[in-house]
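Hey, I was hoping to borrow your eyes for a little while. I've been puzzling over a protein and I'd love to understand its fold better. The fold is given in discrete form, as structure tokens running alongside the sequence. I'd be grateful if you could look everything over and explain what you see. No rush at all, and the record is pasted right below.
>
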Amino acid sequence: VDLDTAKQELEEFIPHVRSISDSSIRKMAGRDLARFKQFKKQGIAVKFGRFSQKENNQIRKNVEEFLLITGIDSAEKLLFTSRYPEDKETINRLKAENLFCEKLSEGIPRPWRLIYYRARKMFDPNNYKGRYTKEEKEKLKKYHALHGNDWKKISEMMSRSNLSVAMKYSEIKSAINYGPWSKEETQKLRRAVEEVIRKRIETEDANSLSSSKKSHREILIDFEKLYQKLPWTEIEAKVGTRYWRQCKQKWTTILTNKMTKGQQLYRGTKGLQAKINLIKRLYEMKVEDANEVNWEELSNTIGDVPKAYVQAKFYKLKVSCVPFWQKKTFSEIVDYLFEEKLPELQEKL
């Protein structure tokens, strides 16, 4: 398939495909297009975002079956072949002969690349090594000074995963403040978010508007652009004194206050009513996994708020009300809240 046709066909499944590099599109045309069409025939949409428990189980099953077929003796060898130079040639041959790409992605309606990254995260023994010691943090700073953002190289030197070292460096590279946000920090955050949103909208508009039209109009910001898929590591760098997760949480709080005109949605009778509505709607949805919940739709149940706000409130509910919630499935947590907590909240109201 030529490049333009590939873009056109993939656009049906991946709306943002034209912002992806040509080399990635060629790979997707080979690995994903036929699968996506097959899923469409079955009425299954292509998914993005967090992987559900069901998808994680399917990846485990696919990896285990591939190991049985090929005789490769570990998932680490299969997914991190470069760590085993003496076996590399044999493993790569077995992967090619037994259609590794097709087997790994079987039954999962997502781009192959995302499935592969997820599998690597799940099966990397370097990914679950607990907290970084003081010595490790110092080593990480030293290696970064020598090798920059070459996380692959640094991860090998530290025996930690690529993702782990990149995230940890992001956290320790500057003096992070963990106390209440100062007025100055909040202003920096607002400016940083405004800059990245403006830059994104101007880039998008460059193709659709002439410069003369652009100079005579206000930039109208789509509601979703205010909190979805913002480049938080870039915002973190602009703020300078806060870790990216803190920036994201603070921005959600600012937005919520703006959108609700400062009303305290989770206080008093309004708070009780919001919790009741949230539990009822989750119960009615009858979904098996948190990733299948339409949080956007749920945010209307509580009020005009960002979906991150609703997710945070659900987290607080399960942690404070559901005993041994870590050992329960999502549907068991919702059932418990509906059967045990809901009557109590209704009585209070």
In short: The chain has a mean pLDDT of 81. DSSP finds 19 helices and no strands in the chain. Residues 97 and 160 are 31 Å apart (CA to CA). Residues 183-206 form the longest helix (24 residues).
